[in-house]
Amino acid sequence: MTTQTQVKQAATMPNFIRGIDFISALLLILAASPILLLKYLYRKFRYGTAIEHVHIYGVSNKQLSLYQFTGEGSCCQWLQLINLLKGDISLLGKEKSYILSSSSSNKSDTANTYAKTQATSIKPGLISFKLMHQQMGLSFENQELAITQAHKSAFSYLLALARTSLIWLLSSKQANQNISDINLFDIKLSNLSMTEMLALIIENAQDHHKKQLSHTGSSTAKINQHFSQYAFVNADCMNISTQNSQYRDCLQTSCDRVFADGSGIRIASICKGVAPKDNLNGTDMFPRLCEQAADAGLSIFLLGADKGVAATAAQNLQLKYPKLKIAGTHHGFISDPLIEQQVIDKINHSKASILLVAMGAPKQELWLAKHKHQLNVGVGIGVGGLFDFYAEKVKRAPLWVRQMGMEWICRLSEEPKRMWKRYIIGNPLFLYHVFKEIQSQKHLATQQKHQAALSGLSSPHCLMVETSRLTNMKANNLSATHRCTRQRLQGKVTALVKRGFDLIAGSIILLSLLPFLLLVALVIRLESPGAVLFSQQRAGKDNASFTMWKFRSMYLDAEQRLAKLQADNEMKGGVLFKMKRDPRITNVGKLIRKASIDELPQLWNVILGDMSLVGPRPALLTEVEQYSMQDRKRLAVKPGITCIWQVSGRSDIPFDQQVKLDVDYIYQQSLLTDIWILVKTIPAVLLAKGAY
What we know:
- By secondary structure, the protein is an alpha/beta fold.
- It is built from 28 helices and 17 strands.
- Strands 8-7-12-11-9-10 form a 6-stranded parallel β-sheet, with helices on both faces.
- A hairpin with a 5-residue loop joins strand 13 and strand 14 (545-551).
- Helix 1 runs antiparallel to helix 2 (80-86), helix 6 (154-170) packs antiparallel against helix 21 and helix 10 packs across helix 15.
């Protein structure tokens, strides 16, 4: 029986989410108001009318009218922020279902269909999990379940918003998904969706099943044909293929299809300008394959894992899919030739259509290839540690972790002794191989262009002389070239990791602190009229100027009063201006400066990419004009919110010493260094040493 407290909690939760939507809509409208006004005037001038309406189904099939700009373009739907402000839609909700026909009968049919598939009280959203799942290769996942989980609490809603925003920022808008094959490490990966892959497996299994029925009573030798062998490869498998030529040859020649598995392969593909349609892996495939095999009357044989694991997995799946036919099971310890032959005979006599082998890579692929002429099945697939998951021996990462491509972290935490080498060493090694392959392809393309240019020389003698000279230069500089390549690659990997960390951490911190930031803005506005945010042009990486944001801590005429106070500058060196009792600072400003709260809006600069969480503080353009050549070294990287000198005394440290600390950071920067500095920033801020 539902208690009164539960009813109150259920009623309060939508109010929290509505509050988040309202505040977000208000801030976004205020931030985008100049652009919205310009777009309104442009559309009005061009089309005669600037605003039009589109209709969608809302909660309980209620028809909603959404605003949008007339015409086409990616920004047409910006006006739907007004609907978000009004509460018609949610910031993160179910996918919008448009009403495309004006016919009442068609509307009724559409509404009935929509009601059956969207039986939920959650509003349509400006954003949904559909695009997020497509970008992360999870289009086969249940979106309704994901959005219901996101709306369980205000905290889960904020985390879901952070995930979707982060993935949108990190996703490649130029990667091509409409490509049939992806070539990586000289291995061809079939670019299929989960639906397409399952259809292919079922089709091959059905063909074999029909042949079995038509040859009833015939010998196995007459019935048997080479089955279709499929393999899933992740970053670890690709690393193995670079060292194991037999495994690489198996993937290239013996396997009929090789499928991309894991976020590592997705990142590598995107770096090459393409993107897998789905993250194809045995764990996600298995329950869907069982369901379709049960409907088609096909049987499955499970071979691999420890003793009893395959049998337990089979029992669990048969409970879920009663019509599923498990032809048989056997553990994977079959190195003895006699036992191996007995297992092969058992598989053939079971008349299984699909054989799943869970021995781990590369053993499972090599075993299937070796016995291809002996096995009488339609499809053979290597599935790694699949049975352990469905025997409930190993826990699967929750969906929200997989949505961010971080399942490997859960696997590492589950089995650190077994998995640490694969992920801690293997992942960076895989990225190294990927960048090496990309650089090699670029170098080859450059050579081909150069050779094409050389072919236009006036005589064969000139061509021989020029080619000889270039060959000698290449030989003399080979070691230097390799050294430079390694350094550039290391720099690119470091920059990529740092940018990813900035986006993830910056987005989470900003969203978590949003209510507090609004409160600070209100207090600033109550004490001093004027804008609560203060923007200023600062010097970024390579002295490129950008707009830096802070909470306003001074009176509006602070810049005009600065010239009169230069004589009282307490910062040694003369480049920076600092006063412990600066008369330009408001009462609230003193507090937020002391606690470094005024710097928090710079999280937005971090997300935009102008700044980093850790790096030299961004200097004023007028300060940079006074820099010596030594001082300018601190402009070699993106500026940051905190750095070494901020956690070592802040304004108490002279400027020349600040430069030395910044340069030291530039030469030793890494993810661990950044995390350590961020950790040390917490006590530095709480103690407020050197803050004024």
